[in-house]
Hints:
The complex is a heterodimer. By secondary structure, chain A is α+β, with helices and mostly antiparallel strands. Helices cover 33% and strands 24% of the residues of chain A. Classes of the chains: A alpha+beta, B alpha+beta. Strand 4 (94-103) of chain A pairs antiparallel with strand 7 (317-321) of chain B, so a sheet runs across the interface.
Amino acid sequence: MIKLNNLNFKSAKVKGKDLSMTTEKKLAQILKEIYNRAECEVKDSTYYRPINEHLVNKDKQLYCRAIAFNISKDAENKAKHTFEILMLHPTMQIEVKRPIIYGSKDDILKFLKDNNSLKQIMDDLTQMSEKLLNK
Amino acid sequence: MSLITKIISGTRTFLRGKTVAKTVTNPVAENSLRYRGIETAIGSYEKPGVAQYRVKPDITMPMNIHTRHYNNPAFEIKPDLLKVKNSFQQAELGNTALRLAESYEKALPSAEREIKEVFDGFNVSVRAKGANSVFSKLERVLIKKKKSIKTDEEARQIIQDAIGGRIQLQDITRKDIIDTLNTIKIDGNGLSNREKHLVMSLFSGRQLSKKELAIANRLAKPIKIALAEKQSEPVFRRFILGGLRDALDRNVTTIEKLEQAGISKDLIKELQTNPKIKPVRMTEINNYKGIDGVSYFSDRQIRQFERLQMATGERFDIITCSENIDLAKYGLEGLSKNAQDAIKPSGYTTAQVNVTLKDGSFAEIQIRGSGPFGEYEHLKYDSVLDKNTLGEIFQPYKKAVQSLSKTQMPVYDSYISRTYDYYRMKELGIQVPKPQLPAGFDPILSEESMKRLHHLNEVDQARKMQTFVPHIEQDAQRSFII
């Protein structure tokens, strides 16, 4: 009998497309990541580097190359922050930006945690995609 | 004309097989009443009611006289059928376009009053979107979005520029440049006398040494942005104040909330003390520029628009068109050179603000400088899209654009983009060499040629419009008697 214990056995991993994850699931995952980062990084009193998460679009229902989510501090008011969505046209020459929420750290976290936020963001993305399609 | 004379005339025309374009005083209304006799039954056995409507001296569009009097399309207009140029679908879309255009004409007087009130003191012109332009846009959008429409209201929602306003900004003067050089701070520091002199020399087109050019070019970009901001600041303030006024009037915000949101104090002060501020309901802002261009709205001004949204809780989209978009925030900064070269510069430089007027009409207000290129730059865009809006005079130009090869088109795009930048710099009081059409291109494609064709077309159209009345084309060869 040959024991295969303690062997650093590495099988070949075949990278395939993640077709199982829909746009909605990807967005839910991104919102979760943004929430986690916002909880740690966003400060009401001091400077922090803007939080950015993005995904390259593979959903044919959305007319865009990529989507980005940003949280940044208001330069005029340290205690306020903006959460916004940006969408990049397939030509990469046009960008549409839409602010989603403006408020304190708690306001941003509350929004990201809310179960209805994902649906609102999906609606926003659909509308922004329509705008890009018109260009 | 008596009935007998009509029959004789119509029979002669029918036998000769000529197309008759009948000029009437009220063509659409008359044709909806049905002709009797020879001059009747527009269309053919295969396409009853389908006709061409001559909307301008050189432009026709399809329509259906049998359903022209309806309030909505007679049937669902579908993109796949439009794509294959189905006559009935196109004719029904033409009817929708005609109805919408008529409603825009009716809304024009009050729209013009409202826009001119808001922008009192500015050089403003207002027009309603014409039927052929509406038709062209609807057809393009329905096919592109694979969308169908059943009602005129659905079509109306697609046309966001039913009313078009244009505000022409004043050019920057030499005094403006000097004032800017004296007051600007770059990296927290003002400019030294030598730096000011070098920048003035650069802007005046004077020769500089390599070292001097490097210094002047480093300083030029922030100064150009400052000049552009100075140029657009008056109209920008009018938009912002109008937006704030509108939000206050609709009780979606208060002065206290505006202060907390960081709206600048001088704007709030003017809001409280100036009774002449008229409300403006903005729905979208577009800020376009070319590859080395300078947009009309600066980043600082765009942030004020964003602040307006935050202050009012109302969201409208800010759309930037630029070859210099930061791709890093999308995770695309590592794009290979080949892929990045696929980005085609368009050069289109303008700011546009979409607004909703008091009567619910959609208006698009364009902000431009005095540069003439904006009047005819659309020729290239319209030619590529094969739009129905180009008259006879432009057909050779259109053919030349459509004949450009895949390798030639980016070169031509670059030339158009640099021409935009040239005129933009001129508005800002900056002298740069005028771009020349690259060697090997048909001379008709040059900017000078585009300008000449535009002028010839204006003169030609003005002459034709003196006697022209929009009417339905009648094709005697395809008519039949009822």
